[in-house]
Amino acid sequence: MAAFNLTNNRWCGWQMLPGYFGERCVPYCCPIYVTRVTPRKTGKGLLDLAFWNTGYAQGAQDFEVTLRMLYRASDYLVARLDYGEDDASERCAVISHIEFGWIEKFCPHLWHNHPPHNLGSVTEYLNEVFGIK
Question: What is the pTM of this model?
Answer without folding.
Answer: 0.89
